[in-house]
Amino acid sequence: MSFNPRMSLAPSSQQQNRGKKKEEESDSFMRLPDKEIAGCISDIGVPFTAADLLKPNPLQIQMIFEWFAELLMNTTRDTVDPAMRAASEGICEDYPDIVPAETRNLMGFYVSLRKLLFECGITDFSFQDLYKPTHDRLVKIFSYIINFVRFRESQTQVIDEHFNKAETTKVRIETLYMENQEMESRLDELKRNRRAMEVHISEKVKRNEELKKRLLELRQSQDKMARRFEGLTKKKKEMTAILEEKTAATIELRQESSKLQPYVSQSPAALQASLTELSNALNTDKAQIDGFDRRARALQTSTDTFTVVSADVVSCTKLLDEISVELAKEEDENVKVARQRDALGERGNNVREVERTEALLQRQLSKHLERTEKLRDGSKAKAMSAKERMEELRAVHRKLTEERNEKGREMERRKVRIEQTEKKMADLKENIENEIHSAHDEFLKMDSHIKLYITEMEQSI
């Protein structure tokens, strides 16, 4: 067997013939009449007749394909135009007009249409079907598309359910995405506010530190000035006491000199000596008085400085009060910042929860997509099983038709026999009726003869 090439090629050719026969049987099962195809296409709003199907026009056929793609996939040349334009610009930036727009859009539309027809069952769709369509190919393609549309209309509830679920998940994802964007923008605003507050707080802290340092310096200077003021007040008291004592002593000396003046000798030498002594004493007293005046002036200047220092101390106390108020405000701001940090943490937790919910929704979406894929696989398996069942039913139908034909033939034979027997029965019935009529006539004749015979017998008696 293996050395004979004809024998080795025979099974493959038989398998190919069987596959072709199966395809032809499925095509014959799926094919629709020309009038039905033309009626369906004209029902959708495109004027089309069986003559147009026999002699197809490429432009009209392309328009019909575009309408089917728009109905089933919401895809036209206009919807494909932006993506194809972007692709052509990305590939041919220097020569954007090298491919015409119509050809470019037709290529994109051809790809989407090929996907649609592949789902419908047409696996050998090509450009030849768009530019040079034939009657046989158009009948096959339109039949498959119309059957797919009918199947889709029969499964509208399931499609609507899945479409509504997809739309709800899509809307939910969009809302979550918008909420995420809003939360991110709010988070960015909070971060910017936090940075601004941190800068403001750092400035306030620096200013607070500077004010604290200045306050410490002012306190130290205040302590120094207070000590100096106390020392100067003590010196002032001492100097005033000394001045009072000296003035009292000078007054007493003047009184004593006035008392002793009449008793003083009138000699010029003694007077000169006393005058010199008195002048010296007076000069010393004047010098002491000038010193006391200077000390009094110094004390006055020190008192003035003390008043200025006290005013500075009062201003420093006011500054301390203001600083305490600002510190209280700063503490309030720190509390607000802490609250804002807590709120920011809560918002961050909310963002995390939103991200978790988004991840959960993504998982649910993937699960739904897996379920839809499983349902598609199940529907495909069911379709395959339905096809197998249809083939089995076709075989059973063929057997039943053959049996029906055989039984019809037998019924026709029996009908012929019954008609023949009915004819025979009718002939026999006619013969019997004729015999009955003849017998009845003979009976009447015999009855009349008997009556005549009886009458004759009675007359004879």
TrEMBL record:
Domain called Nuf2 DHR10-like: residue spans: 279-395
Keywords tagged on the record: Cell cycle, Cell division, Centromere, Chromosome, Coiled coil, Kinetochore, Mitosis, Nucleus
- Provide an example Pfam family for this protein: Nuf2_DHR10-like
What is the similarity comment for this entry? Answer: Belongs to the NUF2 family.
Broad class of the protein's primary localization: nucleus
Chain intervals for the UniProt region annotation (Disordered): 1-28
Q: Which GO terms describe its cellular component?
A: Ndc80 complex; nucleus
Where is composition skewed (Polar residues) in this entry? Answer: 1-17
One biological process term from GO is: cell division
Q: Describe its function.
A: Acts as a component of the essential kinetochore-associated NDC80 complex, which is required for chromosome segregation and spindle checkpoint activity.
Q: Which residues form a coiled coil?
A: 173-228, 320-438
- Organism of this sequence: Sclerotinia nivalis
Q: Which GO terms describe its molecular function?
A: protein-containing complex binding
Which stretch is the leader sequence?
none
Q: Where in the cell is it found?
A: Chromosome, Centromere, Kinetochore; Nucleus
Indicate what this protein is called per its UniProt record.
Answer: Probable kinetochore protein NUF2
Q: Which residues form the Kinetochore protein Nuf2 N-terminal domain?
A: 27-167
